[in-house]
Amino acid sequence: MPQTPAPADNAVAIIGGGWAGLACALKLAQAGYQPVVFESAPEPGGRARRALIEGHYRDNGHHLMLNGCVALTKLFDVAGIKLPTVSFAYQSGARQLSVPANAGQFGLVLALLRAKGFSWQERIKLITALLHLKVNGWCVPDDLSVSDWLQQRRQPTALIDNFWAPLALAILNTPLDQAAMRRLAPVLRDTLAKGGNALCMLQPENNLSDSIVAPLLQTIDRLGGTVHCGERVTAVEQAGTQFQLRISNRNDSSLFDHVVLAVPPWSLNHLTLPALVNATAVAEAFGAQPIATVYLGFDSDFRLPTPLFQIAGPTADDARVWAMDRAHCGEPGVVAISISAQGPWCQLTADALAESALSALLKNLTSAPICLWKKAVVVQRATYAATPQAVLKPTSLEPLPRLHLAGDWTHADYPATLEAAVASGFAAAKRITRQHT
């Protein structure tokens, strides 16, 4: 896309180099601005950046991306990123469900008719629950929890245990008796309800930093934007109609016409902000939830039976969890097991968590491969808690003129996902550009 002439007041600072900040920078650079991103970490990418684990750069947690994620696919198109896809398929014990990529709008219904291990009651209850959401425009009461919705729709216990609970926890990263159903419904609308193509899983051929973040940085740089890593912004102060940033390890201060705060809600407390921005109230309303990822290394020819493989949780009181094969990421023989949201597993040590995940995986395999290494990575504040009170008013997206908020937690509908982060970055850029039209 050709650049448009830059407006006179085009100096934009973006605090935070996660996917929201990078998406915002990309859109602004396309529009002729020269955005400057400040990231405190040594490299950008936020919670989706790589980490050195067992001598190999791997994703700091396994992130599932689907073809139905509109903002993500737009981001990839702009940056010229092409990702292979694989049809949605999962196995949970005797249950097997596969939705071909060429299946249309009713692909899930047809797939359920052919699925193995589901009772006819479970198939009918699942389909009618989704139809109920569709008839109601995918809208549910703001205060309705996922657990209460499942009970209202009379979903069988076995279906909740083997389908709904693992799916909803992975999406919302919040205990289901606390999680707002209104955050899950839009994701179901854009994936399960749209057929096989929307459900196709996007599979980067390397870690996300190399496959996606690096091309984004190149595109931002080519369009005139700048990304600074290892530079922590400590304060945002009003200076007339502009903002002055104070940056650690710098003696000078910088002036900008717009500032985008693309950071998690709890990080606002680490910034000195204008008085009208109530960082403490925001952090309390959104809270935080943990995620653990257990990496298991086997012989390079080992593969899981399906792209998504469901196993028992770390303890008897935890929900079932997802195991995913990392072969497509250039890590043949490596399995990533994601454990979402606060639960009994939080009482385990990292070593016990890894051992429990390995044991659960081996119990679900027809043969027992030798595990060469195992590593549990726990992020205590991985996402915000998608509770009914975790809501940001549209008027709060710009708490002061030209001071903008971005990040997955600012999205009106989606939960804490990469899709929400990118969409929020695009939205912040759109607010800025609209002010000059």
Structure description:
The chain has 437 residues and is an alpha/beta fold. 31% of the residues lie in helices and 22% in strands. It contains 12 helices and 20 strands. The chain has helices at 19-30, 70-78, 107-114, 120-135, 146-152, 157-172, 181-190, 196-199, 208-222, 279-286, 350-363, 418-434, and strands spanning 12-15, 36-39, 50-53, 56-59, 65-66, 85-86, 88-92, 95-99, 201-202, 226-229, 233-239, 242-247, 253-256, 258-261, 289-297, 308-311, 321-325, 334-340, 373-383, 403-405. The strands form 5 sheets. Strands 8-7-16-17-18-15-19 form a 7-stranded mixed beta sheet, with helices on both faces. A 5-stranded parallel beta sheet has the order 10-2-1-14-20, with helices on one face. A hairpin with a 2-residue loop joins strand 3 and strand 4. The longest helix has 17 residues, at 418-434. It is globular and about 65 Å long. The protein starts with 11 loop residues before the first strand and ends with a helix. Mean pLDDT is 92; it is low at 1-8.
Features:
disordered N terminus, alpha/beta, 22% strand, 437 residues, five-stranded parallel sheet, globular, seven-stranded mixed sheet
Question: Helices and strands in order, then pairings?
Answer:
Blueprint: E1 12-15, H1 19-30, E2 36-39, E3 50-53, E4 56-59, E5 65-66, H2 70-78, E6 85-86, E7 88-92, E8 95-99, H3 107-114, H4 120-135, H5 146-152, H6 157-172, H7 181-190, H8 196-199, E9 201-202, H9 208-222, E10 226-229, E11 233-239, E12 242-247, E13 253-256, E14 258-261, H10 279-286, E15 289-297, E16 308-311, E17 321-325, E18 334-340, H11 350-363, E19 373-383, E20 403-405, H12 418-434
Helix pairs in contact: 1-9, 1-12, 2-12
